Amino acid sequence: MDRDVLRYYERGEEDRRLREGDGRLELWRTQDVLRRVLPPPPARVLDVGGGPGVHAEWLAADGHAVRLVDPVPLHVEQASRIPGVTARHGDARDLPVPDASADAVLLLGPLYHLVDRADRVRALREAARAVRPGGVVAAASIGRYAALHDMLRKGRYRGERAIVDASVTSGVLRATPDMGFTTAYLHEPQEPPHEFADAGLPGARSYGLEGAAWLFGDLGRLLEDDRATVLEALRAVESVPSLLGVSGHVITVAARPR
To answer: Please, what are the domains in the chain?
Structure first.
């Protein structure tokens, strides 16, 4: 695993990121999408790169049998404490699980940090191997323009311009610690379905999680005042092609052919 990526996650901040502030929108929209596309509980869900178990926790509470695999020892330790979740160390590109052993496989983080396309396709191919025929594979990606928008929103674009502009051109973000992230690959909206297809998962559909709402200066107030309406509005436009490139995060979903 890339040492910069490992150091970033060893700080232990991933759990809090999704439970507080604007990060809650990513969590709630992930729940919204997955609860519509996953098999009904109880299902065998493999959460690959599941971090400290933020998503595994609510999936287990919904009644799913959740196995989590993550390359960060701290995350495995944290996720192991969650009732109904089993966790072990592992790599998305070489999953330590039998063929067709899951009803659904989630990759809600691995594609972020696999900067080489071959590695991303390999991880998706492993997910396709691990899921049963007809089962669901869902993977999250970060939008190509997320760093640009985030730095503009925070008034920090000028200071980070060289790094940000390089990410727009190549897709590879070499973030500094001051940027609040680490090395990552930022997808163009049309890329994930092609990577799915090359991994043997045709017919993928993409869902923008935050749309343009994550750029609103008063997002926190909106979420506190009327969270349900915000989620309904974003659901209505989640697959509009012109908005997928604005969303900070996108989830792409396909079923393994029978």
So the answer is: 3-144+184-255 (3.40.50.150)
